[in-house]
């Protein structure tokens, strides 16, 4: 099962490092990262493999949201299927 | 990898544009709960509902977490209680309402629908007693919703039932006058009632359905409006195409949730209801979609045309997105539950007559409309008859959910709170239809050809 982590907010140093360290703590493997900065707005999308995850989905979601609060960013984790079903026929 | 813009579009829809799954509704057949002893029947009803729906709320909450999509309501629809009650020797149908209420509380759902009777052609054993008991049942329970089907395209309109329902609606409001007349908000009168509708107050589990199914109702007026906002230069063809594409995406979400809920609960997937269901929240209004198309206010001349196009485009987009579509499937136009409708009704730009015209081209009917507390039962029956006639002739579902604001008149307001919203008392034409209504009998089923 794969999940999509989205990070949106003001650009600053170390966002990728901080978010990926939460993933590492939870034994979440990052498959792909796509990021861009448009007019100071940082957006990052990470595709993660959560099959070997050592916490519950809820716990991962909470930890990432908490990290987002610390960094002043909006971080969400969502099952990959929702994007596939909405944007692929 | 998925396109970053697609991912951000989905996240924006959920976070900023109020996209949600309005309801996951479990339909449960109670046909095997009939018993000549009413207390035994009530126990069977409670036991079956709590057994089948034990994990409904938890499963929906888990899906909400995993997919990041809010699921607002978890509900249950059951076989019309009048059918179960018909087998009972002693008749106090309110006992069933209490049984449903206890079951709803035990499993933690928001509403339970099916305190219902289907009398479109006539009353059978159990129907009359149940209809009579509706006001008391709605007063004594919190989660139970009632509905009565009084007409259909194949059967015509049961005018005896129409006459009766005018009094029942008034009585439901009177008995709950100290609680914003809320009883009437949990009661809907239908023509061509669908048997797989996941939305309240009209949800019930039809007798042709499987023992247990999962039906899902999507929402998303905010998403459609936001899409239109970003593309102001389009002609109407372009607008219709844009709505279709947006409805497709919204419905895909519903289909995913329905399939997942069905898999996790090991219950067959029934249907996805494609409705655009508004809430009183800012940015979640069907009226604002119509205004975004270029109307100064909903209710203006042109409203019916805009709504017809919207409703049709939502269906066209949604149908391909789901393997089974059913229920009400269209744009809802409840007054008190839609911020734009409330404003238009307050300013007098939206009238009941215009709403009636709008119901001819969209789902579902005259919904959540607050009327003066002194409106006679016969006038309410007249409104029901008109609305049922629109449904009968056009082969579509129509419904009436009116709330007589006991002790209040035009200019005053009722405030239900939550998803039910608030709204002004709207003016009703009180010229008397009493003689017409009191004739009783049936309006014969209409001819299905020579359509003019």
Features:
heterodimer; A: 89 residues; alpha+beta; Alpha-Beta Plaits; 4-stranded antiparallel β-sheet; 3 helices; globular; B: 452 residues; alpha/beta; Anaerobic Ribonucleotide-triphosphate Reductase Large Chain; 11-stranded mixed β-sheet; two-stranded antiparallel sheet; 15 helices
Shape of chain B: globular
Please report which band the strand proportion of chain A falls in: under 5%, 5-15%, 15-25%, 25-35%, 35-45% or over 45%: 35-45%
**What about the largest sheet of chain B?**
11 strands, mixed
Helix/strand order of chain B: HEHHEHHEHEEHEEHHEHHHHEHEEEHE
Structural class of chain B: alpha/beta
CATH architecture of the largest domain in chain B: Alpha-Beta Barrel
Major interchain interface with per-chain residue totals = A-B, 25 and 21 residues
CATH class of chain A: Alpha Beta
Instruction: Give the C-level CATH assignment of the largest domain in chain B.
Output: Alpha Beta
> Considering the protein shown, what is the CATH homologous superfamily of chain A?
ACT domain
Number of helices of chain B: 15
Give the quaternary arrangement of the chains.
Answer: heterodimer
Major beta sheet, strand line-up of chain A:
2-3-1-4
Q: Please bin the fraction of helical residues of chain B.
A: 40-55%
- What name does CATH use for the topology of chain A? Alpha-Beta Plaits
Number of helices of chain A: 3
Extended strand count of chain A: 4
The first-to-last residue Cα distance of chain A is: 20 Å
Any low-confidence stretches of chain B, pLDDT <50, length ≥5? none
Termini separation of chain B:
53 Å
Kindly summarize this structure in a few lines.
The complex is a heterodimer of chains A (89) and B (452). Chain A is α+β, with helices and mostly antiparallel strands and 89 residues long.
């Amino acid at each position: 099962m794969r999940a999509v982590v989205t990070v949106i907010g003001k650009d600053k140093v170390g966002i990728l490092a901080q978010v990926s360290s939460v993933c590492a703590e939870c034994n979440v493997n990052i498959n792909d990262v796509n990021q861009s900065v448009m007019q100071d707005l940082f957006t990052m999308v990470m595709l993660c493999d959560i099959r070997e995850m050592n916490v519950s989905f809820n716990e991962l979601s909470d930890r990432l949201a908490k990290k987002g609060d610390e960094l002043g960013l909006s971080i969400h984790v969502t099952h990959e299927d929702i994007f596939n079903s909405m944007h692929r026929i | 990898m998925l396109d970053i813009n697609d991912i951000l579009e989905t996240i924006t829809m959920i976070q900023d544009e109020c996209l949600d799954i309005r309801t996951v509704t479990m339909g449960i057949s109670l046909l095997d709960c009939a018993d000549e002893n009413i207390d035994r029947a009530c126990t069977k009803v409670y036991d079956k509902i709590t057994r089948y729906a034990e994990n409904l709320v938890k499963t929906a909450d888990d899906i909400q977490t995993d997919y990041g999509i809010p699921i607002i309501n978890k509900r249950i629809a059951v076989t019309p209680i009048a059918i179960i009650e018909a087998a009972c020797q002693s008749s106090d149908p309110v006992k069933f309402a209490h049984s449903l209420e206890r079951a709803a509380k035990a499993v933690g759902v928001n509403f339970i629908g099916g305190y219902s009777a289907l009398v479109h052609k006539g009353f059978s054993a159990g129907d009359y007693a149940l209809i009579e008991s509706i006001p008391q049942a709605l007063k004594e329970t919190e989660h139970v919703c009632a509905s009565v089907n009084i007409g259909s395209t194949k059967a015509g309109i049961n005018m005896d039932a129409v006459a009766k329902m005018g009094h029942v609606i008034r009585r439901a409001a009177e008995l709950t006058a100290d609680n914003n007349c809320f009883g009437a908000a949990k009661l809907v009168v239908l023509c061509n009632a669908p048997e797989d509708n996941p939305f309240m107050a009209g949800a019930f589990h039809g007798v042709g359905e499987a023992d247990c199914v999962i039906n899902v109702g999507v929402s998303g007026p905010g998403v459609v409006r936001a899409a239109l906002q970003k593309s102001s230069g389009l002609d109407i063809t372009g607008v219709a195409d844009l709505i279709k594409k947006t409805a497709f995406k919204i419905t895909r979400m519903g289909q995913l949730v329905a399939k997942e809920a069905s898999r996790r609960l090991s219950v067959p997937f029934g249907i996805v209801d494609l409705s655009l269901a508004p809430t009183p929240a800012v940015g979640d209004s069907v009226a604002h979609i119509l205004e975004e198309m270029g109307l100064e206010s909903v209710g203006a001349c042109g409203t019916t045309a805009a709504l017809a196009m919207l409703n049709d485009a939502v269906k066209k987009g949604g149908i391909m997105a789901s393997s089974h579509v059913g229920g009400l499937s269209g744009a809802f136009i409840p007054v008190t539950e839609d911020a734009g409708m409330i404003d238009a009704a307050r300013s007098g730009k939206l009238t009941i007559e215009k709403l009636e015209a709008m119901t001819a081209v969209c789902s579902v009917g005259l919904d959540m409309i607050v009327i003066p507390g002194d409106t006679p039962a016969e006038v309410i029956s007249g409104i029901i008859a008109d609305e049922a006639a629109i449904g009968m002739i056009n082969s579509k579902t129509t419904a009436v959910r009116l709330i007589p604001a006991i002790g209040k008149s035009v200019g005053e307001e009722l405030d239900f709170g939550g998803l039910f919203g608030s709204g002004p008392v709207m003016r009703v034409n009180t010229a008397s239809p009493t003689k017409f209504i009191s004739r009783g009998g049936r309006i014969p089923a209409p001819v299905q050809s020579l359509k003019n």
